[in-house]
Sequence to fold (585 residues):
Amino acid sequence: MTAEGQSTEELKERAKRCRRSIVQMVHKAGAGHPGGSLSAIDLLVGLYSTQMNVDPSNPTSSERDRFIMSKGHASPGVYAILHEMGFLSQSDLDGFRTLGSVCQGHVDMKWTDGVDFSAGSLGMGLSFGLGCAIAAKLDGLNYQSWVMIGDGETQEGQIWEALMSASYHGLDNLHVIVDRNRIQNDDFVEVQMEIGDIASKIESFGWSVKEIDGHDMEHIVEALDWSVNTAGPTAIVAHTVKGKGVSFMEDNPSFHGKAPNDEELALALEELT
Amino acid sequence: MSAPSSGGASRDGYGAALLDIADDPRVVVLEADLGKSTKSCLFRAEYPERTVSLGIAEQNMMLVAAGLASCGKVPFASTFAIFSERAFEQVRNGIARPGLVVHVCGSHGGIHTGTDGSSAQSIEDLALYRTVPGMTVMHPCDDISARHLTTELLNHDRPSYTRTARNKTLRMYDENSVKDLTIGKGSVLRQGSDVAIIAIGVMVHKAMQAADELASQGIEATVVDMHTLKPLDTDLLDKLATECSGIVTVEDHSVIAGLGSAVAEYLSQTNPTPIKMLGVKDRFGESGGSEELLELVGLTKEAIVESASSFV
Fold:
């Protein structure tokens, strides 16, 4: 059971609802990124259901926990969990990627209550989280700053600038989740630019690191709890499957940034019942 | 207005201003291993707990500043103008796009920077930041005005970029006259009805010297210190276009997309006016003394006089 009294089974059900929202959003918009949203969604559900101190009636509270989705193309995943948390309505989700919608193509703090960062350009979110974590220390506030990055995203040099400076500044209130789904825009990560043992690399920059199965809800909840109770900045390297939950999207690079057609949507929803 | 005899570098004014506004606990200073050069070191010495050292990592610095701003801080992040350009996309996407109020300072701007050579002489920074929606862009002409304008940023509601200069130039302001300076309003240093010389940064004092020379030839020039390139003081431009026969713009910056371009972009649409643009003509600099380099690229008092005379 979580702090909010939700069982692991209830979290799994929540994740399934989110998966349905993700494929429906991307299908309706005719564009978007289902693969990286589906790989991340169990982690997002675990995080928001067990850790995030946020309130849709007071979305800018200075004491709220921050979540920075650095891989901003996973916006359908973020919107799905924010819908579950009461920040977004179904009609908000239905407007995904349309003119004037609060659900922009990439998550954007300027447009959406509950979004703490304007993403879309990879490599920047961890630095932003660092700034939030330093601000918490300066203000004596206890909020936590969580950042999700993609594995392909670690090819950006700025990620390593941020990793280096987080341990230097001793930020025990900063937590990274790496969505290690092994696929990036053009192809598999190992084809585009092998990143190797990412956990060891992050550890060598002075972080405490834990590797988990990013689809095992019990392990996710445990690892998140470990993060906030461990000294220094912490990183969870979550091994995931791109497109998880929809058979024909799983481990399929072509569904990084492609919408399902009508038949594919029907098939996906059938699998997600 | 007579120029005070001694000189000051605008980067010194930036450093002094950080101390002036330090009582506000929202102020946080960010450094990328150039605090001794940009003069944020003055703040660091007094307020180490509110100084964030990022090492030689400008991209990280810009987003750390954005994160701090999102949590209610007023971050002042400085590096060399040229190295801020390395993080241009971070400024564009991470700071300006969400409208986070971060104040970036790029020191050692322009060819005036001198002997370090072309790698350190930013001649495109003002052009870059001018294109970013909602950004304020400034280039004060001396230490006193840089100090005043930086202090004014404390309660400014937009992200900003301020270019400062490494080397001293003649002061155009004293502690009283500087009080009239406002972000976004050009400062008329001298009134004349024949021609207008609009200058920015280290070229302002040369514009004033040129105006003296022109006066000796019977030509009266208005001289404007256009310390704020964006938002541009278009009311003043309209007035100058009406009153004067032509405008000379002078900048230690590429003539492509800088001050001259900004003035022409506006006046060509509203009040077409003959304009001569003095600046760096699509070339890089090289090592040399400040005055030697300005002469090399044609940014001299004589060139201003010649351009202004052609309108009369």
User: Anything to note?
Assistant: The radius of gyration of chain A is 17 Å.
